[in-house]
Amino acid sequence: MSFKKAISLILILLLVMPPFTSHAEANGSTDQPADETADQTAEIQNTETVIEDRYHTVLEKWEKEGVTNVSNFETFVAPSNFLNSDDLNLLSSEESMGYGDNVIHWNDQNPSLSLEVTVPSDGLYELSFDYYPIGNEVIPIEGSVLVNREYQYYESRRIVFPSVWKNAQDEFEKDRFGNEIIPKQVSLTDWRQISAEDASHLQSQPLKFFLKEGSNEITLSHLRGEMLVGKVYVHSPTRIPSYKEYTDQLPDGEEGKELIIHEGEIDYTKNSSFIRPIATVDSSVVPNDPKYLLLNSVGGESWEESGQQINWNVSIKEAGYYRLTFKVIQNKTTGGTVFRNVLIDGEIPFSEVAHYPFEFNKKWTNSTIDDEKGDPYLFYFSEGEHEISLQADASPVNRTINTINQVITEMQDLSLSIKKLTGNQDDKSREWNITEFFPDIEAQLDNWANRLDEESKYLKELYNGDDSQDIVSLNLAVQKLRTLNEKPNEIPNRLTELTEGSSSVTQLLGNLLLELPKQPLLVDRFYVHGDQDIPKDRASFWKTAAFNIKRFVQSFTAGNYSADGADENTLEIWVNRPRQYVELIQNLADQSFTPETGIKVQFSIMPDESKLILASAANNQPDVAIGVSNWLPYELAIRDAVYDLHQFGDFESYSKQFSPGAFLPLMIDDSVYAIPETQDFFVQFYRKDILEKLNIPVPNTWDDVVQILPELQRYGMNYYTPIAGATGSKPFATTVPYVYQFGGELYSENGMLTAIDEEESLQAIQFMADLNTIYSMPMQVPNFYNHFRYSTLPVGIANFTTYVQLTSAAPEIAGWWDISPYPGVEQEDGTVSRWATGSGQSGMIFNGTKSADDSWEFLKWWMSTDTQTEFANTLQLLYGPEYMWNTANLEAFKNLPWPEEHKETILAQWEYLKEVPKTPGSYILEREISNIWNKIVFEGENTRAAIDDSVIAINREMIRKMEEFGYMKNGQVVKPYHIPTIEQVMEWGGNENEE
Fold it and tell me: Which residues does UniProt assign to the signal peptide (predicted)?
């Protein structure tokens, strides 16, 4: 090796090494012992060293060390014997809701329950709890389990205690069109027992905990919700008998002669409120109707999360052995097999019906629970009432999920090292001898490809030889890795194919991680029967043909939500939302608004909100439109198509229910052309587990953010800003918060020019660019949600969409992330300026309305606290946690079924909500601020020069648009254009001032 090349290699290695000196200084010491420095050098730069290992890794380690399950042991500890019972709210047996013993009310006031248990030997044990859920909310009750004051694996940080739900009635009500309505949901409160399980339900058995011989301390820590806690049990791991063992221990008997037919959509309970009846239009479903939508099946996509369970009650008149047959459609998007645990009276009767497969089939199929040879399993039922349950089960694909997670982590580590080597510069003209710096890179790529190939073969066998999209995605990832390995020296310039692009290997595998756990199954009915014929699963050809003809004919008269126009006595309201939203709003209006006011309303689904401009021009507009983007009312108002709500006498007092800053884009001068309907929020998301482990404080200001970056980056992590999530053009939401926080403004006082060249705005734009150019924050992140889950970006700023994703689709970190206000700029008086945008949807009245007063009455009813609260709660109960409703009504928002601490944070941030006021030329301002950032960051242009160039283009276009709309003529102002302000909105006094 030449001397020059050796020097280059040393410099590269110095760049790759973590900045240990900075770490030491951050901890107040620069003199470190040699062994401490060696320990630090040995640390892997990823979050596996920051958080506990996953359960499967720890379990494998215990097995290698010879740690085994303990047999024939069970004990319990009653609440009165808990270690800290004197400090807890211990309720008497009379207050125990029928438990018959002392219980503890476990909530925020009693956050930690500790008990001591003595076991006979070292080994693996299970924990079970008696509990009584309190409350009627979608938010699950959650806690964490520490053994001897430690989390033994990451999954022990979140244990879920589910509630049981049912439809309020099995007789489905009908809407105005004769279609059946999904009933309200009610929770059933009673005592039940549960073993501690993986919250993601990816483990096939309850979690096991290692207890040492003798005394052990077990602590249940509160995360969310409240419940009564009874006895805590420590016992040997549960063992499920085989089918032979099951039948051997049962009495002799014959197959039952009875045929029980049970419709899936009625008489059932469930552990998720949003498992719901589905209207399936098909001649093979029972019941069916060619004209009306009947709720005639249950499950589908509402029953795809692992662990979700449906329980049906059946009455057996004659004891004996029976077969179970389910009439189902298994139509998983990727075409893979799904799995269910079959339970009888709350237990899996034998191991062969755990993880029972339902293969992909788009048509209705009678699926009898049978063995590999096709011989049906026989279930023994005594005379009387029994419960038959199916539980969604993704545990068979858990090994593939674990492998994919490991490969993604390893690929990201390699990508980070390569970026450090190349200085994060993608220079296509530069050649790299990458194997000289990473000698094992070819072996790494080959190893990843082989491991993924093994999982592809495993899935194919698991899916009974079917080629699903899951397998195709794995094979494509393998192919990409092998292609990259053919020319490893090109990898520095092809990282978009490995970890960063939308079609990269990481993105393919990340998408697969979202799809693999899904286990959808749609059930029409099931049969408990003996060796006898059961009804056919599909209708005959002639019956199907007749049904389809009738449906075609009836479609011309059947009611729907199309925009067909309403009669003169009915308000026509267009809604820019999916059908399930419109159905719910129509039902609420029919039940309360119309009876209370006498005003009839008809809702229609808006196919495209941009068509409102054309509809208005053609005088074919509705009376009211809701769910429209907040930019649209201004575009219609400046063309004199929308009604000024400020004309109503009670508008000002009514407006107090909303954030003042939300009105700014809806105003021209002092006229207001819409009211906020929903409201976005930008807050700081952070992983509690990682920040606590690294002893990093939650940032409060941008100075705090800058200070924590070295420690984050030392572990291969970083901080996320919304700029990184915007591709190409950077919208106002990603750039304007910096301007407002630094005290800058977008417009001049007369509104005719821009003000971004003033000193405060210049400082803001400079800092915004420095975050990427100096502080090395990521410039492009395709999906913050995924990076947050995988811990590479454990802290960052994101909006409502990310909140929904983390709440509904990240069970593995639930309870271990939190939100805080947007970091801001500290002011001279010590306060922190946190201004941020919050665009949402709005509702408006058209000038061509039949009755402006009636339309205003509707808007007031729709956005009232009571209506918004009922709508939000019902929507989430029926359709699941992902159907969160971020109402703009502040009082209604306080009533949402969200964690209280999160609502407090969001409401605090909304005090700094400041939307961008609209002007005829505001679009050019948005575009040019984005261009300025691109010039500074990517082209290295001087900030002042970049701003000055853009200001010329912005002012020229703004003047042109002001002349177009009559505010200027020949460069002179002929009519003032007042930029609305928060102070202006807050001065609205309403009825209080009028008095």
Answer: 1-24
Last residue of a domain, one of 175, 204, 235: 235
Q: Is residue 556 part of a domain?
A: no
Could you give the dihedral angle defined by the CA atoms of residues 510, 512, 513 and 515, in that order, rounded to the nearest 10 degrees? Answer: 130
Query: Taking Cα atoms as reference points, which of 483, 469, 271, 252 lies closest to residue 378?
Result: 252
For the segment 93-121, what is each residue's pLDDT rounded down to a tens digit?
A: 999 999 999 999 998 888 899 999 999 99
Dist. CA 324–CA 501, nearest whole Å: 48
User: Pick from 390, 330, 321: which is nearest to 354 by CA?
Assistant: 390
562 assigned to some structural domain: no
Structural domain contains residue 547: no
Average pLDDT estimate for 755-771: 97
Same domain, 468 and 501: yes
Among 184-188, 302-306, 714-718, 821-825, the range scoring the smallest mean pLDDT is: 714-718
Q: In angstroms, rounded to a whole number, what is the distance separating the alpha carbons of residues 742 and 729?
A: 22
Q: What is the pLDDT of residue 927?
A: 96
Q: Crossing angle of helices 469-486/441-462, nearest 10°?
A: 160
Torsions phi, psi of 378, nearest 5? -110, 130
How confident is residue 5, by pLDDT bands cut at 50, 70 and 90?
Answer: very low
Q: Are 356 and 222 in a shared domain?
A: no
CATH code: domain of residue 141: 2.60.120.260
Q: What tokens does 896 get?
A: 């949402």
Q: What is the spatial distance between Cα 304 and Cα 26, in angstroms, rounded to a whole number?
A: 47
pTM (two decimals): 0.85
Give yes or no: residues 290 and 416 share one domain.
no
Do 508 and 527 lie in one domain? The reply is no
709 and 828 share a domain?
Answer: yes
Query: Is 558 among the domain residues?
Result: no
276 three-state secondary structure: coil
Q: Which of the two residues, 461 and 32, has the higher pLDDT score?
A: 461
**pLDDT of the residue at 563:** 65
Residue where one domain finishes, among candidates 910, 939, 960: 910
Provide the pLDDT for residue 22.
32
Omega before 183 cis (within 30°)? no
Q: φ and ψ at 326, to 5 degrees?
A: -110, 130
> Is 189 a residue whose pLDDT tops 60?
yes
d(CA 715, CA 414): 13
Q: With pLDDT > 70 as the criterion, what percentage of the chain qualifies?
A: 93
Q: How many domains in the chain?
A: 6
264 and 295 Cβ atoms separated by less than 8 Å: no
- Give the number of other CB atoms < 10 A from CB of residue 262: 19
Q: What is the pLDDT of residue 176?
A: 84
Residue 318 main-chain phi, psi, to 5 deg: -130, 120
Nearest in space to 368 (alpha carbons), one of 258, 530, 540, 538: 530
- The answer for 751, left when phi > 0, alpha when psi is -120 to 50, beta otherwise, is left
Residue range 152-174: mean pLDDT, rounded: 93
What does the DSSP assignment read for 829-851? TS-EE--B----EEEEEBTT-S-
Q: Which residue has the higher pLDDT, 41 or 779?
A: 779
Q: What is the band of 501 on the pLDDT scale with cuts at 50, 70, 90?
A: low
Is residue 344 located within the same domain as residue 437? no
Question: Phi and psi of 702, rounded to 5°?
Answer: -70, -30
**What's the start-to-end Cα distance of the chain, in Å?**
90
**Which helix (H) or strand (E) segment is 152 a member of?**
none
> Which residue range is the domain that position 430 belongs to?
398-515
Task: Give residue 664's pLDDT.
Answer: 97
Percent of all residues in the chain with a pLDDT value above 90, rounded to a whole number: 74
Amino acid at 898: W
Asked if residue 33 and residue 104 are part of one domain, the reply reads no
Find how far residue 820's CA is from the centre of its chain: 18
On the question of pLDDT at 622 being above 90, the answer is yes
Residue 39 has pLDDT above 50, yes or no: no
Answer yes or no: do 404 and 505 share one domain.
Answer: yes
Q: Please count the helices (runs of H) and the strands (runs of E) in the chain.
A: 32, 40
For residue 925, the domain's CATH number is 3.40.190.10
